[in-house]
Amino acid sequence: NDNFGTFGTIEGLAWYNKRLFSVGLQGSVIEYDLRKHEPKSMHPISSSPCWCVAVHHGNKRLAAGTDDGYINIFDIYEDELVYNKLMDKQEGRISCISWDSSGDYLITGSVDTIRVWKVSTGHAIHRLLTGRDMKMKETVVWALAVTDDFTIISGDSRGKLCFWDGNNGVSIATYHSHKAGILSLCLAEDQNIVYCAGVDPLIASYERVKMRGSEELVKWVKSTQRVIHDHDVKCLVTCGNVLYSGGVDGYLAQSSYPPKILIKYPPLLQSPCVALAPKVKYLLLRYPNSVTVWKLNIGKNPIKLIEWRPPTGLRVKSASISANGQWFVCSTADRLRLYSLKIVDHKPKLIKVKIRSKSV
Length: 360
Known about the structure:
By secondary structure, the protein is an all-beta fold. The protein folds into two domains: 10-265, 7 Propeller (Methylamine Dehydrogenase, Chain H), CATH 2.130.10.10; 274-353. Helix content is 1%, strand content 54%. It is built from one helix and 32 strands. Strands 1-2-3-4 form a four-stranded antiparallel beta sheet, with no helix packed on it. The longest helix has 4 residues, at 3-6.
């Protein structure tokens, strides 16, 4: 929808039942109308960008972390989102945030540090230091997950997966699972497996196993690893025994093991997104932010004739081309545009044509 551009970027998403919320660099929490496919309401947080959001379903609360180190708490009501409180300010950006199972505590990740917050007081009760591989290079905690027994799992820019005791604020284990930063991680529904991936697109899983001779002592061990994507993996989520992943390559992947299954869904546009000019063998392709026209040649590579882009902030709603390839039309939310497509000295040229509207 064109309103998405107006409301800025989307840096984090969270569901509450059938309601969808997002945060972004515009410094607001936005709720969406899923029937109309557009923003429904906007709730300002602060003057700084917002990087992460998390919802606790039991307490009906939403928490958002900002660039200037604030955690904003909102109460979720049936038809609205109401501001509740502001936690103590921390030093530096909050890059990720997660609730514990009770809803009494929040966990945040930032540069070199993970903090455990008590929501009722607004104060941090534990400060967990990640350390650095190189003295002058910061470690950024990009992803968090929390189990019911308050084990905190973090993924950071070093490519390390770390396990922490949230009750005592101490490190349990650290694994160098990836060659580059971990951007996303998630727990299986039974919380016995954690999946992680990131700049290094390898999706690795670690499984919680009980130590021999003890019912209480557990250890996280590496289980499986798969390369499903070609570029950065930005998001992981599980449903049953199925893992869904997505990232920079634009594919939504559905995978499981065992049994070993992989289904990849390409980024498809809403139809109609293709038009033909059969008399001259032109192919028009419509994308959200551009329209391209190609000349098809049998036995040869196609030649791109034109690439048209709308004004900044607008998205292409529809586009078509005449059967003889001489007329090209496209529309955005604000207007309809008509062009004459001509080949001059073997070079394509778009000439804008004025459209005169007539009142009825």
